[in-house]
Design a protein that fits this description.
The protein is an alpha/beta fold and 506 residues long. It has helices at 48-55, 78-83, 101-105, 120-134, 149-162, 179-194, 206-212, 235-243, 300-307, 330-335, 355-360, 375-388, 404-417, 436-449, 461-467, 490-497; strands at 8-19, 22-33, 37-41, 63-68, 71-72, 86-89, 167-171, 198-202, 215-220, 223-229, 265-273, 280-285, 289-293, 315-320, 323-324, 338-341, 368-369, 372-373, 422-426, 453-457, 470-475, 478-484. Helix 4 (120-134) crosses helix 5 (149-162), helix 8 (235-243) crosses helix 16 and helix 13 runs parallel beside helix 14 (436-449).
Length: 506
């Protein structure tokens, strides 16, 4: 177990947070000292985001307290958290690209003189001091949008530090940068630590946790499951912590799907690359479910978007149904028989329209006669599809009136009606209830039994292991491994996803 810091700058006692009847965080106690770099890890849904939201004042805990430097922190107030020295650097790139470095760094607390006029000289001077202290190699007058991505991210770090931060929270900070740039960011974090700033480092990249953190806290099901010293927090130990508690996860489920006999390839990627991908080669056969596992920013979702025609590629070739597919062409991809189910349901549903409209959209031409729509035939077909996915609601009701899980069912019904041959699924059960999840899984399996192929990206590793015939692992925009048969288990997929950078092929 990790030793408690001799002097804790921040202390959390018995933090609990419930959303309705769902407990997201339960009895979490936490201490961090000045200059300490604490890793925070846990599976999706473990409570990491909720904990960070409470620290930054975005969420109010249902119970518990926080003390900063011995004084109580006013909870539920972002302003109070920032004033106490707690600042976060989010995963998303959040800069004003047309403004200067100085304007970005001092945004929200510009030095001003009488009548509210901006003291630009002081803005540049103060920014220059911060950049020098953090060893950030940019100038105050540089335009942020013209800087390399890693330097734009360092500007975000400087902005958080400019609020005289004493605890900086980094949430998946390397998700969208290259391996070379990771070292630059980690060096900047080391500089902050050396200056006495406490760091909470939230990441799925276990090699980074292993290399930079002086201690690690593991959250599981909303509770602190373990606290480890740097010596204890080896890569294998962290993987074990993330998969502990269910011996069945170490082996393939008894009902795991067997890989079908080689059938007609519905999708073939041969050396596909570009701005988002690098030399991707994979195939999906008829009746086959191919899973794609990868951390945020790895390129896993970009594979789906490329196949769907939403992202262009500049190298390699792609065939759909045996025919060459044009880069960046969504209509061609749809006409070739692909169906894309996005992880963000707001991108897949027309919120202001009825369930019937959303379900029949890709097949509406089948119900057209001259310039009229045969509504009776359309309603009958939609009713049949809704019955197939066990969605028992009035087809004329607005799709926005449905729960998240039922909206997902309606979108699945849409593509079942279109008889799509290749289903591109992005986190198909994210946010759905426990009863709807197996129903959607059954529809995916049935689509394969009917001859479709599936390319499945999921942040839920258990879902990949349960559904997929094989899983390819993506890191740094490349495929770095493939697992199938007895090797396809949750711990082995997780280990492959979080492998050390030096293990990734050059």
């Amino acid at each position: 177990m990790a030793a408690e810091p001799d002097v804790a700058w921040l202390e959390c006692a018995e933090l609990t947070k419930a959303y309705g009847g769902v407990v997201a965080l339960e009895g979490v106690s936490f201490r961090i000292g000045a200059g300490e770099i604490r890793g925070l890890i846990g599976a999706n849904g473990a409570g990491k985001s909720t904990f960070v939201k409470i620290l930054t004042g975005i969420a109010v805990p249902s119970a518990g307290s926080i003390r900063v430097d011995g004084s109580p922190l006013r909870l539920g107030s972002p302003k109070a958290s920032l004033a106490a020295g707690i600042a976060a650097v989010p995963q998303e790139l959040m800069v004003a690209p047309t403004m200067t470095v100085a304007e970005n760094v001092m945004m929200g607390h510009y030095p001003q003189r009488g009548a509210g006029f901006l003291r630009r000289r002081d803005v540049r001077r103060r920014t220059g001091e911060i950049l020098e202290r953090l060893s950030v190699p940019v100038r105050p007058d540089d335009v942020v949008g013209e800087l390399p991505l890693i330097q734009q991210r360092l500007v975000m770090v400087a902005r958080a530090f400019s609020f005289e931060a004493r605890l900086m929270i980094f949430d998946e900070p390397t998700a969208t940068i290259s391996p070379r740039e990771v070292d630059v960011l980690l060096q900047a974090i080391g500089v902050l630590s050396a200056r006495g700033v406490s760091i909470l480092y939230v990441s799925h990249r276990l090699d980074e946790i292993d290399s930079i953190c002086t201690s690690v806290t593991v959250l599981r099901d909303g509770r602190v499951a373990a606290e480890l010293t740097a010596a204890e927090a080896t890569h294998s130990a962290l993987v074990e912590q993330l998969t502990v508690g269910d011996a069945a996860r170490d082996r393939r489920p008894a009902a795991a799907p067997l890989r079908p006999a080689a059938g007609e390839p519905l999708l073939e990627l041969d050396g596909v690359g570009g701005a988002w991908l690098d030399d991707i080669t994979l195939s999906v056969g008829r009746g086959e479910i191919v899973g794609v596992a990868g951390l945020s920013g790895s390129g896993a979702r970009e594979i789906l978007l490329t196949v769907a025609g939403a992202l262009p590629y500049s190298k390699g070739k792609m065939t759909l149904g045996g025919k060459p597919a044009r880069s960046g062409n969504v209509p061609r991809a749809v006409s070739a028989g692909t169906a894309f189910l996005p992880g963000d349901r707001s991108l897949g549903a027309f919120a202001g329209q009825s369930i019937r409209f959303n379900v029949s959209l890709p097949t509406i031409a089948a119900f057209a006669k001259a310039s009229f729509i045969h509504r009776k035939a359309e309603r009958s077909a939609v009713a049949s599809l809704l019955e197939r996915v066990a969605l028992r609601r009035d087809p004329e009701a607005a799709i926005s009136s449905l729960s998240g899980g039922n909206q997902q069912k309606a979108i699945v019904a849409r593509w079942l009606g279109a008889r799509s041959q290749l289903l591109l699924l992005d986190d198909p059960t994210a946010g759905v209830d426990v009863r709807t999840r197996p129903e959607l899984h059954q529809q995916i399996r049935q689509a394969c039994a009917d001859g479709a192929g599936v390319l499945l990206v999921s942040s839920d590793i258990d879902e990949l292991v349960e559904l997929a015939h094989r899983v390819v692992v993506v890191a740094w925009r490349r495929i770095v491994g493939e697992l199938s048969g007895p090797e396809l288990t949750t711990p082995k997929v997780l280990a492959a996803m979080t492998r050390q950078e030096e293990d990734v092929p050059a």
